Amino acid sequence: MNRSARDRLPMLLAPLIVCVAYFLGAKLGFALKLHPYPISTMWPPNSILLAVLLLAPTRIWWILLLAALPAHVAIQLANGVPVPMLLGWFVSNCSEALIGATLVRRLTSGPLRFDDSRHVGVFVLASTLGVSLSCFLDAGFVTLVGWGEGTYWGLWTSRFFSNLLAELTLVPMIVAWVRIDREALRRLTLARLAELGALMIALLVVSIPVFNWQKTGPESIAALLYAPLPFLVWAAVRFGARGASTATLTVALLAIWGAMHRLGPFVGSVPRDNAMSIQLFLIFISIPLMLLSAFVQERRKAERAALLNEESLKLALDAAQMSIWDWSISGDDATWPRETSRVPFGLILRVVHPDDRAMVAEAVTAAIEKGAAWDVEFRVAHPDGSVRWVMGKGEVLRDEAGIPVRLLGVNVDITDRKRAGEALRASEELFAKAFRGSPDAMVISRQSDGRIIDVNARWETMFDIDRGLAVERMLGEFLHGAGAPDQAALRRLAESPGPVRDVELRLRTLEGEHREAVIATEAIEMGGHACFVTTIRDVTERRRGEREAQEQRQLLTHLSRVAVVGELSGALAHQLSQPLTSILSNAQAARRILAREPVDLDEIRAILEDIVGEDRRAGEVIHRLRAMFKRGES
After folding, report:
1. pLDDT at 103
2. Confidence at 629, pLDDT banded by 50, 70, 90
3. Which of 124, 467, 509, 529 is deepest in the core (most CB within 10 A)?
4. What is the DSSP string of 427-459?
5. Per-residue DSSP letters for 378-410?
6. Could you give the CA distance from residue 169 to residue 42 in angstroms, rounded to a whole number?
7. What kind and span of H or E run contains 506?
8. SS3 for 335?
9. Cross-strand pairs, 519
C-alpha cells in the first residue's frame, strides 16, 4: 500500500467509526436510566460527535455528522421513537456538537489541549453554551411533537445536566487518548505502568464499596462519598488529562450503575432528583480536576522551560565568561558566581586583589548610598596565584521606602580584552615609533576621500611642508608624475583597493624638481576608518650613483678594448695582409688571362669569387676592429 492510500484510509474509516461509536453511545445512554425516569443520566452520543468534530478538519464535519444519522435512526426506531421526534433529536444533537466545536476552534485558534488551563476554560464555556442552546431545541421538539412528559423547563433542565455531564467526562477522555503520543507510550517505564495499575485498582477498591455496596439508610456514612476524591486528584496530578478524565468516567459509571440498582449515596429520593444529584456531583468534580491537571502540566512545562533557560543561561554565561551574583544588603549575605550557598559579602570581597579592594568597596558604598551606577573594573586573585581582570556592573534594588535591600550584579572576565588592549597599545606605540623614525617618507590617508591623516618627519623634509599644513589636504596635491607614464602609474595606485609593492616612477615636487621614487601602499584601519599607509622611498641619489657607476664601467670597458687592440695590432695587420695579398694576386692573374685569346671565362669567374671571399674576410676583420674601438658593450 502506497503512502497516499495509507493517508486516505483514516478518512474512509472515520465515517464508519463515527457511526459505530454513535450507536454504541446511544445504547449506553439508554442503559443509563434511573427507571422509571425516562431521561438518561448521561447521554454520550452528543459528546461523541463533539469529540469527533474537535479531532477532525472542518471540511469533513458534514460527512461525519451525516455518518451518525443511520445509527441515530436505527437506535431511536428500536426504542419506539417516532420519526418526527428522532429527526428533531438528531438536529438538536448535531447543533450541540457544532456549537461547541465552533466555539472551541474560534477561541483557541488551534487544536484543543487539555494541558492548557485557558483551553480547559474555553472548553467548559463552549460545552455549557452548546448544551444550553441545543437543549432549547431539544425541549422544543419534545413539546411540539408531544413525545414525553413534563414541562418545557423541566425537560430543558434534565437534558442540560445529562448532556453536560457526558461532555465534561467523555470528550476530554476521547480527545486526550486519541492524541496520545506514540513515542510517549514507548517511553513508559515499568514503574509508571505499575503506578497507573495501582491507581486504578485503588480507585475501584474504594469506589465500588461507596457506590455499589452501601445502601441508603440510617447506617450509611455520607462522608464516604468523598473517599474516591484523593485518587481522582492522584490521577489528575500524575497522569494529566488522560488520567483525570478516565478516573472521573470510571467513578461516574460506578455511581450511575449503583443508583440504577438502588445502591450508593444517590438513591435517597425520587429517580429524577437522584439523577440530578449524580450529575451535579460529577460535574462539580470533573471541572476542578480538569483545571488541576492543566495547572500541573503547565507547571511542569514551566519547570522544564525554566531548567532549559537556566542551562542556556549557564552555557551563555560560560561562553561569554560572565557570572552573576546577588547580595542581600539587609542580611549581609550573597550568592557568588556558580555558587548556590549564601556567604557573607565580606568573604566574597576578599577575593578582590588587595590593590583594588578599596576601590571596589567605595563603588559599592556609592551605589548604595548615592544611587551611583555600579560599574567598575578590578582584579581578582585566584588561589593558584593567577590574577584575572573583571568588569562588574550592577544595580541596587530598593523597597517601597527607598531603603536599599539588594544589589544585583554581573561580572565579566575581561582579562583577554585587557591583554588584547595592552597588545594593541604596544603595537600602536611600535607602529608610531616606526612611522615617526622611518627614513622613508610615509603618509596615512583615508581610502574614502584621499585626505591626509598624518605624515612623518621625512615626508615634511621631502615635500618641504609642515605636518600641520599637510593634514586634511588631499594626497593628490603632493604626488605629481614627471611624465604621462608616471601620471598613469599614480592613477593606478590611487584606484588599487589592495596593497601595492615597489612601484618605481618619477615625481615632480611642488618646486618643479624631479625625483625618482619607489612607492608602496598598505591598507589598514585606524579609528574605525579604512586607510592607506603610503611609503615613498627617494631613490634619486641612488639611481644617479647607479648611472654614474654604469658609465664608469663602460669607460673602463672601452679603454680595456683599446689596449687590447693596440696589443693585437700586429696580429690584425697580418690578418688583413693575407686577404689583401690574395686579392692582389687574383687580380694580376685575371689581367694575364684577359690578355690571352681566347679568354677563359670560367677561370675569370673563379678568380672573382676568390676576390669576393677575401674581401669579405678583410671586411669582417675591420668590422671587429671598429667594434672594439667603440664605447659601450656590443
Report:
1. 94
2. low
3. 124
4. HHHHHHHHHHH-SSEEEEEETTT-BEEEE-HHH
5. EEEE-TTS-EEEEEEEEEEEE-TTS-EEEEEEE
6. 10
7. strand 500-508
8. strand
9. 503, 536
Cβ neighbourhood burial of 449 (10 Å; 0-12, 13-18, 19+) = exposed
For residue 456, the model assigns a pLDDT of 84
Query: For residues 195 and 198, what is the distance between their CA atoms, to the nearest angstrom?
Result: 5
Q: Residue written as cell 485518587?
A: 231
> Residue 319 corresponds to which cell in the numbers above?
561562553
Residue 6 pLDDT: 46
Hey, which residues does 515 pair with through a beta bridge? 507
pLDDT of residue 10: 60
**pTM, entire model:** 0.59
For residue 432, give the amino acid letter.
A
Cα–Cα distance measured from residue 350 to residue 344, given in angstroms and rounded to the nearest whole number:
11
Task: Give me the amino acid identity at 588.
Answer: Q
Q: What is the mean pLDDT of residues 541-564?
A: 75
Mean pLDDT on 285-298 = 92
Identify the weakest region by mean pLDDT among 232-241, 347-356, 454-463: 347-356
Tell me which residue has cell 486519541.
Answer: 178
Q: For residue range 145-185, list pLDDT tens digits in order.
A: 877 677 888 889 988 999 999 999 999 999 999 888 777 77
pLDDT score of 165: 93
Q: In this structure, how many other beta carbons lie within 10 angstroms of the beta carbon of residue 188?
A: 10
384-406: b or e for each residue (b if 16 or more CB lie within 10 Å)? eeeebbbbbebebeeeeeeebeb
Distance of alpha carbon 603 from alpha carbon 580, whole angstroms: 20
Read off the pLDDT of residues 209-241 as tens digits, 9 standing for 90 and up: 888 876 654 555 666 788 899 999 999 999 988
Q: Are 132 and 157 in contact (CB under 8 A)?
A: no
Angle subtended at Cα 20 by Cα 164 and Cα 74, rounded to the nearest 5 degrees = 85
Q: Which residues are 387's β-sheet partners?
A: 381
**What is the secondary structure of 306-322 as a DSSP string?**
HHHHHHHHHHHHHHTTE
> Amino acid identity of 503?
V
* pLDDT number for residue 164: 94
Q: What is the separation of C-alpha 540 from the centre of its chain, rounded to a whole number of angstroms?
A: 60
Q: Cβ distance 537 to 522 under 8 Å?
A: no
Of the pLDDT bands very low, low, confident and very high (cuts 50, 70, 90), residue 339 is very low
**C-alpha cell of residue 136:** 432549547
Those residues with Cβ within 8 angstroms of residue 24's Cβ, 6 or more apart along the chain or in another chain: none
Residue identified by cell 467523555 is 170
Q: In the structure grid, which three cell numbers stand for residue 322, read together?
A: 560572565
Asked if pLDDT for residue 338 goes beyond 50, the answer is no
> Which H or E element spans position 627?
helix 601-629
Segment (H or E) for 477:
none
Q: Judge whether 48 and 170 are in contact, CB under 8 Å.
A: yes
In the beta sheet, which residues pair with residue 374?
394
Q: What is the mean pLDDT of residues 457-485?
A: 77
Helix (H) or strand (E) run with residue 532 in it: strand 529-538
Q: Do residues 631 and 558 lie in contact, with contact meaning Cβ atoms separated by under 8 Å? A: yes
